């Protein structure tokens, strides 16, 4: 485990907390420079030679009380700098220190020893220690939040960027100890290149000479977007110029065609000016110029990009692929890199830690873990292999195992998005025959074995194409079959932008499922690929691929239990106008395989689900009408909640589920178990012995850790449920906020793990329990629908209204449309339809 125990004299130590005010208010980078100058100037009179740590904003922490007056203030003047400060920035500042509190770490010590509750003093103490462990690192490396990065071992990727290896560290309370969680990270930076070379790399040219024909307007716009606001240095004045300049834009004309007027009124171009002024004949006058001020032009060959600037724009598909290759590390490699990061952190020689009396163990924490046994899968009774036990989290899908509940496919069509020479008709026909064979072998009744085939251009009208395919499927279906087409297979050369458009039109306008396939998969289709497609199609059409053998999940079998999954997704960074999307799904059987969904749009950036009462009510009614039973127990998995939001979720969302129950029947009060699912963390487990690892080198599926690094006394655990494919697997952290059913710990962990074998889209255990997974997919798919809708009226009205209904998604087996009576208060009085 990549966590280091932290030792200290907690019980005998106070930390002094001071409020820091720097005026005028400036950006964090300049704030840091002002503070460093203040510390140098007032090392003795303000600090008495003592080492303190500052978070770069408002908080200063000291191991002892400062010897200066309280409050203490003084003026600081920043001298002419090396050029990293804008000339327009202020140079004179006032720094004020005022004691805010004395943090008694005894409370934190008692908390991790399970002797006291978590308090505000504990929170402040953790914050102080978190600042402490990162302070020296922040002085030596480029830091981003809790990550620090080093150019050592950087790797160039497409488009003039490079990936830097980084390391993450954060302080975590554990059982009896404080831990530092250390992990690897990576991010992209601009390469520190001469600007003309950066031009070539960003445009995909082999060299600058490939651009001699000039830079096209679309390429200039690409350069302008990529380079705007980055820092550069100039190198044409004969000496080392330290001053930095900010790129304003890229000119639409080349250096030999970019003209301006000199002070004497003479008109000249940039190439001629540099030849006459500096004796510099430009080697690349055909390149556009860099504008650093309103009318200040520089040829790219005299500019150099300052190293260490993060690339914050969206990466291309190729850059993303390069990034994944860099970060995808086997467990052994990652463990070595984490150890290398700990050497760079060098806690043993950290004078700030010593000043505060802290010590950090140099080795990773060894944990006790359990491995839960895999469940036994059950398929159709007529299968040659009705029962099967997965090996290392996977099981085979073949003709020996027929779907537990296979559907009938009687009306469908195939659309090929490409020309004949790109995707030949013979290849498509062979693929369809083999797919039909696979579906029949798996138990599906395919009554239309030769679906209509049609072609369309990826740049054509997707709406009209899908409507035509829908109509042809109707016409080709057997006369006695009156129901609408069930499926449209879409074969495309690449995913591109067409897939989300297909999904939106098919699922919101036509009410038909789609299955997208890439051409390189169907040209030489493998039997296993067709079997996996059959698995997905059966699930989308409402079938059940497999269940778990009776007795595997007693929590679902011993009494009617509904499982909820909840998630909220938000628009991209900076978009505060588009509404957030809340999704909730609920199980519709005792197998834990079929689910229905409820979706709402709500106020932008609100994390709690605002209309949860209505959503839960819909799903409770659906469960009752589907099974004929009222849920006697509710188990809810909530995705996307951070620890700082636990209290708010406890207060609002659990109460909302209870209100949903009361609104159906006054006496209906089923016990609720509410579990938060956390995926965005940096805990990683490394098996000590290779014999205890799976074939990828990761811990075995079913690995459970519920001691040492978990909360000192609350109910949480980690499960690594999935087999590793590549890289280092990330366990999922489950935190139980409420358990009114008093479920046995082992039973709850076992059920959570076994649910991971019931994900309907693959034959592998997944990393997150499916209720949470499905809720996220429903919210994501709704977001894709929203992107294509008219934003002005839809987004504005839904944001103002707070909560707005949105049609339920059907891709998790059950489409639920609920029409509740306003006055009715019990299950029987609600009228609704389940498809």
UniProtKB/TrEMBL annotation:
Q: Where does the chain cross the membrane?
A: none
| SMART domains, sorted | DUF1785 (SM01163), PAZ (SM00949), Piwi (SM00950)
Q: Where is the PAZ domain?
A: 207-307
In what residue span(s) does the Piwi domain sit? 487-787
State one molecular function term (GO): RNA binding
Q: Which Gene3D superfamilies match?
A: 3.40.50.2300, paz domain (2.170.260.10), Ribonuclease H-like superfamily/Ribonuclease H (3.30.420.10)
InterPro entries, alphabetically?
ArgoL1, ArgoL2, Argonaute_Mid_dom, Argonaute_N, PAZ_dom, PAZ_dom_sf, Piwi, Piwi_ago-like
The family note in this entry says: Belongs to the argonaute family.
Instruction: Specify the protein name.
Output: Piwi domain-containing protein
């Amino acid at each position: 485990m990549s966590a280091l125990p932290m030792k200290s004299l907690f019980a005998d130590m106070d930390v002094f907390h001071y409020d820091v005010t720097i005026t005028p208010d400036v950006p964090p980078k300049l704030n840091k420079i002002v503070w460093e100058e203040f510390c140098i100037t007032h090392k003795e009179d303000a600090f008495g030679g003592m080492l303190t740590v500052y978070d770069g904003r408002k908080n200063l922490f000291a191991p002892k009380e400062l010897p200066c007056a309280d409050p203490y203030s003084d003026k600081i003047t920043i001298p002419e700098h090396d050029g990293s400060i804008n000339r327009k920035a202020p140079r004179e500042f006032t720094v004020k220190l005022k004691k805010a509190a004395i943090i008694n770490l005894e409370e934190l010590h008692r908390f991790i020893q399970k002797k006291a509750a978590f308090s505000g003093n504990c929170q402040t103490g953790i914050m102080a220690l978190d600042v402490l462990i990162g302070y020296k690192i922040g002085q030596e490396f480029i830091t981003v939040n809790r990550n620090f990065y080093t150019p050592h071992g950087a790797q160039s990727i497409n488009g003039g960027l490079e990936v830097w290896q980084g390391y993450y560290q954060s302080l975590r309370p554990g059982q009896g100890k404080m831990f530092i969680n250390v992990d690897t990270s990576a991010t992209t930076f601009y390469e520190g290149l001469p600007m003309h070379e950066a031009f070539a790399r960003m445009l995909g040219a082999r060299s600058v000479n490939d651009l001699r024909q000039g830079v096209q307007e679309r390429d200039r716009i690409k350069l302008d977007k990529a380079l705007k606001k980055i820092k550069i240095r100039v190198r044409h004045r004969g000496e080392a110029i330290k001053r930095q300049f900010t790129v304003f834009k890229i000119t639409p004309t080349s250096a030999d065609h970019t003209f301006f007027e000199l002070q004497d009124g003479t008109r000249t171009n940039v190439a001629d000016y540099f030849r006459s002024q500096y004796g510099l004949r430009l080697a690349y006058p055909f390149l556009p110029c860099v504008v650093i001020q309103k009318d200040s032009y520089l040829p790219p060959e005299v500019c150099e990009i300052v190293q260490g600037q993060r690339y914050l724009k969206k990466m291309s598909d190729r850059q993303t692929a390069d990034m994944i290759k860099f970060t995808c590390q086997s467990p052994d490699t990652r463990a070595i890199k984490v150890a290398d990061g700990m050497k760079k952190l060098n806690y043993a020689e950290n004078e700030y830690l010593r000043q505060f009396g802290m010590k950090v163990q140099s080795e990773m924490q060894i944990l006790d873990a359990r491995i839960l046994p895999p469940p036994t899968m059950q398929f159709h009774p007529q299968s040659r292999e009705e029962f099967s036990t997965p090996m290392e989290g996977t099981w085979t899908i073949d003709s020996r195992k027929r779907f537990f509940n296979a559907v009938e496919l009687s009306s469908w069509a195939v659309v090929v998005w490409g020309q004949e020479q790109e995707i030949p008709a013979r290849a498509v026909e062979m693929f369809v025959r083999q797919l039909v064979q696979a579906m029949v072998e798996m138990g599906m009744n395919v009554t239309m074995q030769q679906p209509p085939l049609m072609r369309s251009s990826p740049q054509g009208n997707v709406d009209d194409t899908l409507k035509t395919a829908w109509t042809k499927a109707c016409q080709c279906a057997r006369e006695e079959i009156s129901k609408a087409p069930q499926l449209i297979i879409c074969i495309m050369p690449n995913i591109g932008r067409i897939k989300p458009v297909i999904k939106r039109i098919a699922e919101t306008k036509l009410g038909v499922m789609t299955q997208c396939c890439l051409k390189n998969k169907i040209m030489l289709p493998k039997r296993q690929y067709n079997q996996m497609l059959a698995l997905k199609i059966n699930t989308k059409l409402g079938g059940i691929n497999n269940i778990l053998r009776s007795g595997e999940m007693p929590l679902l079998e011993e009494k009617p239990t509904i499982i909820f999954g909840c998630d909220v997704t938000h628009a991209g960074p900076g978009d505060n106008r588009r509404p957030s999307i809340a999704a909730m799904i609920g199980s519709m059987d005792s197998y834990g395989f079929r689910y229905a969904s409820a979706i709402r749009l709500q106020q932008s950036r609100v994390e709690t689900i605002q209309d949860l009462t209505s959503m839960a009510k819909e799903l409770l009614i659906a469960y009752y009408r589907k099974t004929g039973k009222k849920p006697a127990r509710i188990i809810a998995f909530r995705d996307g909640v951070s620890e700082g939001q636990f209290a708010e979720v406890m207060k609002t969302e659990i109460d909302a589920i209870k209100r949903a129950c009361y609104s159906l029947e006054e006496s209906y009060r089923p016990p609720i178990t509410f579990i938060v699912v956390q995926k965005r963390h940096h805990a990683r487990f490394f098996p000590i012995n290779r014999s205890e690892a799976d074939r990828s080198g990761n811990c075995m599926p079913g690995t459970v850790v519920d001691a040492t690094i978990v909360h000192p006394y609350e109910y949480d655990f980690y499960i690594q449920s999935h087999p590793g494919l590549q890289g280092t697997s990330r366990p999922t952290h489950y935190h139980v906020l409420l358990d009114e059913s008093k479920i046995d710990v082992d039973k709850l962990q076992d059920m959570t793990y076994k649910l991971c074998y019931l994900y309907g889209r693959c034959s592998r255990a997944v990393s997150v329990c499916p209720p949470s997974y499905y809720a996220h997919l429903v919210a994501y798919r709704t977001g894709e629908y929203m992107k294509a809708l008219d934003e002005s009226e839809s987004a504005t009205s839904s944001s103002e209204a707070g909560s707005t209904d949105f049609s339920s998604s059907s891709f998790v087996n059950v489409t639920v449309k609920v029409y509740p009576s306003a006055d009715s208060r019990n299950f029987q009085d609600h009228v609704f339809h389940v498809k």
